[in-house]
Amino acid sequence: MFETAEKNIKRNNLSDRVKSYKMDILNEYPVILSTTFSSRDSLNDNVVYDYVIMDESSQVDIATGALAMSCAKNMVIVGDTNQLPNVVDKHTEIRADVIFNQYNLSKGYRFTNSFLQSVLEVTPNVTQTMLREHYRCHPKIIEFCNQKFYRGNLIIMTEDHGEKDVLKVIKTVKGNHSRNHFSQRQIDIIKNEIIPNDITNKKETGIISPYNNQVQSLKEQIDGIEQATVHKFQGKEKETEPDFVLTYAENQAEDYPTTLGAKYFAELVEERTNGRIRILVQPVGVLGSENKVIKQMQYGGIDFARVSLAQLAEYIPSLNVLQMPYLYTDSDHMWRVLDGEIGDAFLESVSADDVIGLSWYDAGARNFYNSVT
Fold first, then answer.
1. Is the pTM of this model over 0.70?
2. Does position 222 have pLDDT exceeding 90, yes or no?
């Protein structure tokens, strides 16, 4: 009990310190991540952000959405009215309807609406942009949704490689097999027909049901496969979902040789780990300057980076030796040194500063310039 109280005191003290230094934090970290519920109080209830971006707004209720809106000068609301709305239990729905009808509120403020629905009803002329590109599902799967819900407006970026039975429908025999949102007949078909005939990797398989009772029964009868309701599964992936997602920082452009090398490295890692490890290459310095990237690597915020020797030498002065002029007679000489014992020793020295040196890049020959004529 005393240990828990002590932890709570430390947590509260930390929270107070964070709120007292809100502007210092914003200057150093201009992007703040938060849930909609905590957005108002993440730093301080007096903070007003230049922009608040709300993702998955079709899953947000109007009350917590309003909290996020109250601390924004501008707001970008991202969501899909064709996705499942937020879940409102029956008891809350009845109570909300009593208040709604008592005060004769506009239907846009009905609590059973998602925040996205409310915004579109209350401000129908708000600027809207459709994010048309789709990068996730197999073309045969998303094309069904494209025609059914989006009038063919989606641009499908995934490719069909001739996979068999990508979308398959199994119709059960007619009859009333469902009781209290539970169907044993469907569970039997999954156990006795689908799993033996179609499932080769249980870890990369998911079973989705609209009802909690069915999910609970599935969990009791089927082991080794993830099972959940549609709401809990929304946004998840199977087959392509890696065990680890790592970040690679690069300050050069998309088509620069070092960036292309980083992308090839990421492809090899994903291929040789059978998709278990994915490396996201972030070029053009989007993760910060080389100096800031090194600092983020030291505390684990970034996993890989290609940085210049000059920046790294600020942390490990011995590396300045490698920047001296006239060390090598030609490129072959340089690579014999860097790929040999001397180069290995310098890479090892990097590890003493919480960064692991993996390899060397060639930045090309350099010239001397003088401002004095």
1. no
2. yes
